[in-house]
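Q: Predict the bound structure with phosphoric acid mono(formamide)ester.
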Amino acid sequence: MTLRSRHLLGIEGLDRSEILAILDHARTFREVLDRTIPIVPALRGRTVVNLFFEASTRTSTSFSLAASRLSCQCVSFSKATSSVSKGETLLDTARNIEAMGVDGIIIRHPAAGAPHFLARNVKAFVVNAGDGAHEHPTQALLDAFTLREKLGDLEGKRILIVGDIAHSRVARSNLLCFTKLGARVAVCGPPTMIPPFVEDYGCEVFYRLDRILGEVDVVNMLRVQQERITASSFPTVREYRALYGLTAERLKKLAPEVVVTHPGPVNWGVEMDFDVADFAQTLILPQVTNGVAVRMAVLFLLAGGEHPEG
Ligand code: CP
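A: Predicted complex:
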């Protein structure tokens, strides 16, 4: 199986069969991760770079681990200690790193479209690890993988995405991914945080969390992104938590089979009370574990590796 594009720039560019192929490969690699020695030689001799212009814990670490589990070398770039601080451009930075012999560039950048720009201008394959408020495709893929492991096929499942839909690259990628997999998706948040025409993505829109919470299979909470939002679009933290937070009181009213996800990092006490961490159906840490397997699948498919099972 090969993907139609040699880059992974967004869920928008993947069709259902490509998403399912990535998730199927991730299943194989998830089993590899459970072995005593969780390493396969699939990408021996290859090198990728983590080119992160924004902070990250989960995505950067899991791409780095995914590469090493595939016997692929991963070098890391830090904006703060690089020549970007002397004014070097994104393209010059990428071309100079590519000249040292990397096969793939994993980029996170505050500007929407930065990975697409690189993909047009370098020979290496490019993976979007989050571009502005645009897309975060590997988060959507690992969320879909985690939900399929727990719930089976997502066809017809009701998934509610809650929070700052307008500023969230996770919301956009998840909405695209879940609908391509046949789920019935709804979004809920303050009117100032719901983008116009979001229904065009094939979702329902709710402004009152308590109106819809009892009708869904999955509650996908989003981080309130203080760094991207303006005071005029955000109520107070107290008001936000009261209207849109997954509080201890709301948690008690959830049906026991409902599952809760969050991409992290969590603002405990804002979008989610700490009680949610102990809820049996919370998948926050399994999402992180599965992220390594999903990113192994993405690197494997883009770098054209040897299948671990021969
Ligand atoms: N979910 C996610 O992208 O987390 P990081 O910002 O820590 O990578």
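A: Residues 11-135+288-303 form a domain with the Rossmann fold fold (CATH 3.40.50.1370).
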